[in-house]
């Protein structure tokens, strides 16, 4: 049981955020062939992991650890470049923690809980009173200070952040079965018939993979789990169900700590784990008033800011006019005599003349040749699209040449382009 210290200021000052960023995200197909899911580009400028890290910084947490594993080089490089401003002389820390076989010479991180357990000595050396465990692969804005306060007020062993979803859609998540006071009665992993929220028969509470513990209790649970034969070493499968069964676990509803641009805005949270979900979440940012506000200076999304020249739009002839409408265009981009609509252009993208680009997510360094027509595509970084390429108009042709999703989004990589002329 915990209680909030009297006159201690924000609880975030006494907390450490620990981001689990080792997952591949295989449903993103070729986008994660060279990078972990948290390192995937998002929003014309950022990486997915920047949202969890920015939430921690904006919440007042100044000790952060990030556990990496799968193809972590680009993720580590991004964090070294963009997140190296925390200073130990100010009692701040930022630790990148690759799976390095520190506990066993034969094992990598066996699960999410093991990714914390293997670094307990590092965590305990900082002496944080609270641990905020975060998933590094979701897009949302949240004030963790609010969740920390609720955790202390409830006296729970663990507080689990949850999002309300339609009940029958909850079968894709870990679901919290709660009582009238949001105490978790049981934890069900991807149930076929999810339990509803009391008083809301068509709504269920799905876990966001965000947990708050007192550090001492978490260390005890992790050591107990590590000594348990047959454990999956996982928070969702082992640690949380164990605490639900013999301790006190409380659900924290995301809408209570979601950071919104207005009171009317939705409680925005997205798992961009499929090509369709990834494309849609990016394209949603082109709305006149998007649900996710990237322009909120009170809750900025920090990232590595590459030094680039301004975006440039050139040529103003009939049929050859450089323009972009309802689009996000980053620094270093040049749109030369093409029309771009409802699209995102990441840094240093080039769009040459006579093109029609609509519903496109063009990652950094893409070069679009002349007379190219694109609709509903994601183009991986560094891809050079040849002159005259047409995508998004003939589903059968798209299926033959590229990765076409169930929702009709075409994912294009350089090997796919190279195969066209092979």
From TrEMBL:
Pathway membership, UniProt: Glycan biosynthesis; glycogen biosynthesis
Alphabetical GO biological process terms: glycogen biosynthetic process
MF GO annotations: ATP binding; glucose-1-phosphate adenylyltransferase activity
UniProt cross-references to InterPro entries, sorted A to Z: ADP-Glc_PPase, ADP_Glu_pyroP_CS, GlgC_bac, GlmU/GlgC-like_hexapep, NTP_transferase_dom, Nucleotide-diphossugar_trans, Trimer_LpxA-like_sf
Enzyme Commission identifier(s): 2.7.7.27
Keyword presence, Nucleotidyltransferase: yes
Binding site for alpha-D-glucose 1-phosphate: 109, 174, 189-190, 207
Domain Glucose-1-phosphate adenylyltransferase/Bifunctional protein GlmU-like C-terminal hexapeptide: 309-412
Positions of the Nucleotidyl transferase domain: 18-286
Site (Could play a key role in the communication between the regulatory and the substrate sites): 69, 108
Catalytic activity: alpha-D-glucose 1-phosphate + ATP + H(+) = ADP-alpha-D-glucose + diphosphate
Enzyme class: transferase
Record keywords, A-Z: ATP-binding, Carbohydrate metabolism, Glycogen biosynthesis, Glycogen metabolism, Nucleotide-binding, Nucleotidyltransferase, Transferase
One Pfam family it belongs to: Hexapep_GlmU
The organism's place on the tree of life at top rank: Bacteria
Function (record text): Involved in the biosynthesis of ADP-glucose, a building block required for the elongation reactions to produce glycogen. Catalyzes the reaction between ATP and alpha-D-glucose 1-phosphate (G1P) to produce pyrophosphate and ADP-Glc.
Assembly description: Homotetramer.
HAMAP family recorded: GlgC (MF_00624)
Similarity annotation: Belongs to the bacterial/plant glucose-1-phosphate adenylyltransferase family.
Name used for this protein in its record: Glucose-1-phosphate adenylyltransferase
Biological source species: Roseomonas indoligenes
């Amino acid at each position: 049981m915990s209680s909030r210290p009297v006159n201690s200021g924000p609880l975030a000052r006494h907390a450490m955020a620990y981001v689990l960023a080792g997952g591949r995200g295989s449903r993103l197909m070729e986008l994660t062939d060279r990078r972990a899911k948290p390192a995937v580009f998002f929003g014309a400028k950022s990486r997915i992991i920047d949202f969890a890290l920015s939430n921690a910084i904006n919440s007042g947490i100044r000790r952060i650890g990030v556990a990496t594993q799968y193809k972590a080089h680009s993720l580590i490089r991004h964090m070294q470049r963009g997140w190296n401003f925390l200073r130990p002389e100010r009692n701040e820390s930022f630790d990148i923690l690759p799976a390095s076989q520190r506990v066993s010479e034969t094992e990598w991180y066996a699960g999410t809980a093991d990714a914390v357990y293997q670094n307990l000595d590092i965590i305990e050396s900082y002496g944080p009173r609270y641990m905020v465990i975060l998933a590094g692969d979701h897009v949302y804005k949240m004030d963790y200070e609010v969740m920390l306060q609720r955790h202390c007020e409830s006296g729970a062993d663990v507080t689990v952040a949850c999002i309300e979803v339609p009940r029958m859609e909850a079968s894709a998540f870990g679901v919290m079965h709660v009582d009238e006071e949001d105490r978790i009665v049981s934890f069900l992993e991807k149930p076929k018939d999810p339990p509803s929220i009391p008083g809301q028969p068509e709504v269920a509470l799905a876990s966001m993979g965000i947990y708050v513990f007192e550090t001492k209790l978490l260390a005890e649970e992790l050591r107990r789990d590590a000594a348990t034969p047959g454990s999956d070493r996982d928070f969702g499968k082992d640690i949380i169900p164990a605490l639900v069964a013999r301790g006190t676990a409380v659900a924290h509803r995301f809408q209570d700590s979601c950071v919104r641009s207005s009171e009317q805005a939705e409680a925005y949270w997205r798992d961009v784990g499929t090509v369709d979900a990834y494309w849609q979440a990016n394209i949603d940012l082109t709305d006149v008033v998007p649900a996710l506000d990237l322009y909120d200076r009170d809750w900025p999304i920090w990232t590595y800011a590459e030094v680039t020249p301004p975006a440039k739009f050139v040529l103003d002839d009939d049929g050859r006019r450089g323009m972009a409408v309802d689009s996000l265009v980053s620094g270093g981009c040049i749109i030369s005599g093409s029309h771009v609509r409802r699209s995102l252009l990441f840094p240093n993208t080039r769009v040459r003349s006579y093109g029609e680009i609509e519903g496109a997510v063009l990652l950094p360094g893409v070069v679009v040749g002349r007379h190219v027509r694109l609709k509903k595509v994601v183009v991986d970084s560094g891809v050079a699209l040849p002159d005259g390429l047409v995508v998004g108009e003939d589903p059968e042709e798209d299926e033959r040449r590229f990765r076409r999703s169930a929702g009709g989004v075409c994912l294009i990589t350089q090997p796919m382009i190279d195969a066209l002329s092979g």
